Amino acid sequence: MTPETSKSETLFEFASQYLVAGVSGSARLNAALGRPVYLTHGDGCRLYDVDGRTYLDYNLSHGASFLGHNHPGVRKAIQQALDMGVICAYETEHHSQVAETLCRLVPCAEQVRFANSGSEATFAALRVARAVTGRAKILKFEGHFHGLHDAVVWNAHGPARETFPTYPYVPPQVESAGVPPALADLVLVIPWNDPAAIRQALREHGDELAAVICEPVNYNSGCIPPAPGLLELLRAETAQRGICLIFDEVLSAFRMAPGGAQAYYGVTPDLCTLAKAVANGLPLAVVAGKREFMQVLSPQGPAAHSGTYSGHLFAILAARAALHDIAQPGFYDRIAATADRLYRGLTALFAAHGVPARVQGLGARFGIYFGVTHEVQAYQDAARIDGELGYRFIRACFARGVYFHNYGKLALGHHGFSAAHTPADIDETLTRVEDALKTMGKG
Ligand SMILES: Cc1ncc(COP(=O)(O)O)c(C=O)c1O
Question: Which of 4, 127, 421, 423 is most buried, most CB within 10 Å of its CB?
Answer without folding.
Answer: 421
